[in-house]
Amino acid sequence: MRKWFAALAFSPCLTLLHAESTTTATETTPFIEYNNRIVVFSINHLAYERIKPNAFYTGIEGWGVLDGRIWAWALDDHFLLEGEYRAGYNFFWNGRDHFTPIAGIGFFKDFQKLYHHGRRQSRSGIVYGTIGFLYDHEFTSVFNLGLNVKGILGGPVERKKQGDWGCLRDWEGDWGSPIGGVDVSLPITFRFGYQRHWDIRIEPFDIYLRGSKNDFNYVGFRNTVGYRF
Predict the structure, then answer these.
(1) What are the start-end ranges of the H helices in 68-210?
(2) What is the largest CA-CA distance in the chain?
């Protein structure tokens, strides 16, 4: 009888502790968080990211897109291709803010239509290292807005020499070395579906690259459909 009485007397305390724990967890992470995100339904954009809060981050991404600059000669004059691996740490606070310092390596190439001495060529590819951050704020369980900034430093995969093109030493396709730049993007994410597993991300970007011989500014969109798990 005493055991039953003790259990009944202590049960309200257990209930209160459980309620407090649940409330605290809800206040800490009011939205649904997942550990991984992959890009699906896209043949020109493949990506995987480990997005677990307060844990190590890793991401691998490859994409190809037509440069959307309104001042370009024609949209098909610039086809951009990039592959990148990055790693860092996912800091998470206020139950809404994701901040991820990153470092990584990558490859970038602009398949611009260039004609030199009657021959069609493309710009030299670039191998680079990058350092920067990814930031994302969850306004609601449906709408997120972020800012990604990455510094770029690298060099061309190939160099065009004087003998390659007759008497001209340099041409528009040769970046020169070293090559520095910045990649800034504004990811706008809409999450939907049961438990907010799915998302649509619209990501306008601006990539500026400057070598010792040429520089160029690329503006476009990296849009994706993602699944979180």
Answers:
(1) none
(2) 104
Among 48-52, 64-68, 198-202, the minimum mean pLDDT is found in: 64-68
For residues 87 and 9, membership in a common domain is answered with no
How far is the C-alpha of 63 from the C-alpha of 49, rounded, in Å? Answer: 14
Q: Where residue 148 sits, what CATH number does that domain have?
A: 2.40.128
Query: Is 125 found in the same domain as 16?
Result: no
Quote the pLDDT of residue 6: 44
* Residues near 172 by beta carbon (within 8 Å), at least 6 away in sequence: 114, 116, 123, 214
**Which 3 state secondary structure label does DSSP give 186?**
coil
- Residue range 152-171: mean pLDDT, rounded: 64
For the chain, the domain total comes to 2
Q: Which residues of 210-225 are buried (b: 16+ CB within 10 A; e: fewer)?
A: bbebbebebebebbbe
pLDDT in tens, 1-37: 444 434 434 344 433 333 333 333 334 778 999 999 9
Residue 168 neighbours by CB distance under 10 Å: 11
